[in-house]
Amino acid sequence: MRILVVEDDLQLREFLEDMLTSSGYNVALSHHGEDGLQMLQNQAFDLLITDLVMPERDGVSLIAMMKRLQPKLRIIAMSGRSKTDLDIDSLQLVRVLGADVTLQKPFSIEELEMAIAKVGAMH
Question: What would the pLDDT profile of 56-78 be if each residue is shown by its tens digit?
Fold first, then answer.
């Protein structure tokens, strides 16, 4: 499975790369939404794992655009804000826009593995 991780936090991005690569996935990284969009337009990916709050293009608009361009792309959306009403609304919105799974940061390796297994079973 080819996975694109779009995350502006360097430490989390590198952790996700290490974890996913050691699990046998082919991983590409992007540090913001606009760069992630360009990568998704120029390369084929099976799964997008994206943060919602990022510079240049947020995860919400990235998800909306990519589901129009690549309807079969599987998406896991991550949010790091506290469990406020705004954050819960954002997670619900991205589900409507096409995210297959949402994760609230911080999440465990097991939660991420379960999310990937869930979207993998959708193929």
Answer: 788 888 898 888 888 899 999 99
Token pair 């959708």 in the structure block, residue = 122
Do 57 and 28 contact (CB within 8 A), yes or no?
no
Q: What CATH number is associated with residue 50?
A: 3.40.50.2300
Q: Where are the beta strands (DSSP E) in the chain?
A: 2-6, 26-30, 47-51, 74-79, 101-104
Q: Find the domain containing 113 and state its range.
A: 2-121
Cα–Cα distance between 44 and 42 in angstroms, integer? 7
Task: Name the pTM for this structure.
Answer: 0.88
Distance CA 75, CA 81 (A): 19
pLDDT tens for residues 8-28?
999 999 999 999 999 999 999
The CA distance from 31 to 57, in Å, is 11
Closest CA relative to residue 52, chosen from 115, 15, 3, 99: 99
Apex CA 51: angle with CA 50 and CA 57, to 5°? 90
The count of domains in the chain is 1
